[in-house]
Amino acid sequence: QEYLEFRKERSRMLLSRRNQLLLEFSFWNEPQPRRGPNIYELRTYKLKPGTMIEWGNNWARAIKYRQENQEAVGGFFSQIGELYVVHHLWAYRDLQSREETRNAAWRKRGWDENVYYTVPLIRTMESRIMIPLKISPLQ
């Protein structure tokens, strides 16, 4: 009964909802519990239809440029729901370390090539900064 009341209350607060079934890129790290404190960036890329294989092939080579600080948490792509959507999840100590890590990637030979080949595949992109809840295994 309590759950049904909660559902009714929640439905008044919910403005929209969308679901996706995501698969993990095979070349990416599997998400592991992390000690904190960290912030997380969820980058979402909506790709042009038919470009997922090209995107994956480029990122399979490019991920090595972003592994040094263990900031790469997970990389996923949509299988059900809106298709040709990619999510990258990154961990940083704070916004300053995010900026430093991202700038360091640009100084590595080859990173700019990855960007050059993947940017034309993107229709839209979004970045969200998230702070984990105390119950999250990603701290």
UniProtKB/TrEMBL annotation:
PANTHER family: NIPSNAP-RELATED, PROTEIN NIPSNAP HOMOLOG 1. One of its GO terms (cellular component) is mitochondrion. Residues 40-137 form the NIPSNAP domain. This is NIPS1 protein. SUPFAM superfamilies: Dimeric alpha+beta barrel. Belongs to the NipSnap family. One of its GO terms (biological process) is mitophagy. Pfam families: NIPSNAP.
